[in-house]
Amino acid sequence: MHTTVHSSFKDLGLSEAILHDITKTGYTEPTPIQAQAIPPGLAGRDVLGCAQTGTGKTAAFVIPMVERLAGKSEGFPRGLILAPTRELAIQIQETIEKLGRSRRVYATTVVGGADMNAQIRGLRQRPDIIVATPGRLLDHMWNGTINLLKMRILVLDEADRMLDMGFAPQINQILEALPEERQTLLFSATLPTNVADLARASVKDPVRIAIGRSAAPADRAEQALHHTTREDKTKLLLSLLDADRDSVLVFTRTKHGADRLGRALGNAGHKVATIHGDRSLSQRRAALEGFRRGTFRVLVATDVAARGIDVANIGHVVNYDMPNSPEDYIHRIGRTARVKASGRATSFVTADDHLQLRAIEKLLGQAIPRAAGSAAPAHPAQPARNPRHNGQRDARPGQPSGFRPRRPAHARQSHGA
Ligand code: ADP
Ligand code: MG
């Protein structure tokens, strides 16, 4: 690629006010996705950005949004950001609070599992931007407490995750309710067919930005495999926890498994918090805050609960259970080795995980090294009896996504023309 890479935020055409907030936030130079997405974003172009977790996508869309929406309050929100989970939405809101301060651009968050009336009060404060998960946004639309007619900018963040979580119908309805005349910025870590369909239905003549897959977390996180058995996993994890003092994010496959492991680690004397989809929003926030501050050294999480979690300095990610999809592996280990730090990712592999492991290594384009002292696989060549035993996600071959291509703006003017 021969794209010019700017090494300073000053070269991107930003206001002094936002440069001040960027510096205060602690960013000294733009990441590659920021350097490439901010100029077209400022110019009002649509953007289709493909970049791994941890590459700085949030500021890549928040900065142009703040600049474009500043000083033009019309009493209606004019920016909408859709994100897959409430945690992620809250993190985006926090970034807007930092980067929008001097420009006086305000956001409110509309997410599931939180008080609807509090959100309605937030919406009455005339925010410039709404950060929302798709389901709750629709609830407000149906209640008449949100009107999307004045939206000028739409951001679809972690589009692949939103579709994986089954939000396609909601996103479709939201797209229908938005003005055709708008700017759309779509970000995704991967570009499978359903995301390409969503892109066709939402963005127009976009600037395409791909931050190479070679910059995958694989290059920054030090990965290792432990061959083990279901019964030995907890013992193995406890011995890893004893080996150093790193903060550890542990992934389990099920909510039940997360609870059970959380209790076992707690009983062994570790400071541990657990998050999964059955926890209330306040429980999840308390767990994340405690983990961020170091009150808890270990956070046990399921994929859905951990999606997009941004905690700086996670030293070690442990796949206690292997993920259901290879993309989840990338997302999980992207939780360590954020922008500049580097970390470790350890996977516990049992004889049942054979197929998953192969799929992951294929996606990575490399084998994951076996940890020192890890036993040889018990049944190296024996495939799992039922390859679908834990793959809730893999049964969606070529399913039509239901996204219709976005109509050109003139197609709507059938009446007055
Ligand atoms: P992504 O959305 O691509 O996963 P995030 O936007 O969550 O990535 O950013 C990952 C981390 O990098 C965050 O902690 C964020 O504060 C930090 N970050 C983002 N941009 C910069 C920058 N220009 N310089 C330093 N750190 C940055
Ligand atoms: Mg992100």
Describe the structure in brief.
This protein has 417 residues and is α/β, with parallel strands linked by helices. The protein is built from 15 helices and 13 strands.
Structure description:
With 417 residues, the chain is of the alpha/beta class. It has 2 domains: 206 residues, P-loop containing nucleotide triphosphate hydrolases (Rossmann fold); 144 residues, P-loop containing nucleotide triphosphate hydrolases (Rossmann fold, 3-Layer(aba) Sandwich). It contains 15 helices and 13 strands. The chain has a 7-stranded parallel sheet, with helices on both faces. Strand 3, helix 5 and strand 4 form a beta-alpha-beta unit. The chain is globular. The two termini are 44 Å apart. Bound molecules: adenosine-5'-diphosphate (ADP) and magnesium ion. The site of adenosine-5'-diphosphate (ADP) has 16 residues, from helix 3.
Structural domain count = 2
Please identify which CATH superfamily of the largest domain we are dealing with: P-loop containing nucleotide triphosphate hydrolases
List the total number of helices: 15
Derived structural class: alpha/beta
Unreliably modeled segments: 378-399, 411-417
In sequence order, what are the helices and strands, one letter per element? HHEHEHEHEHEHHEHEEHEHEHEHEHEH
In total, the number of strands is: 13
**pLDDT averaged over residues:** 85
- How large, in whole angstroms, is the Cα Rg? 22 Å
Assign the CATH class of the largest domain.
Alpha Beta
CATH architecture identity of the largest domain: 3-Layer(aba) Sandwich
Strand order within the widest beta sheet: 3-4-2-5-6-1-7
Bound molecules: adenosine-5'-diphosphate, magnesium ion
The CATH topology of the largest domain turns out to be Rossmann fold
Straight-line distance between termini:
44 Å
Helical residues, percent:
25-40%
Main sheet properties = 7 strands, parallel
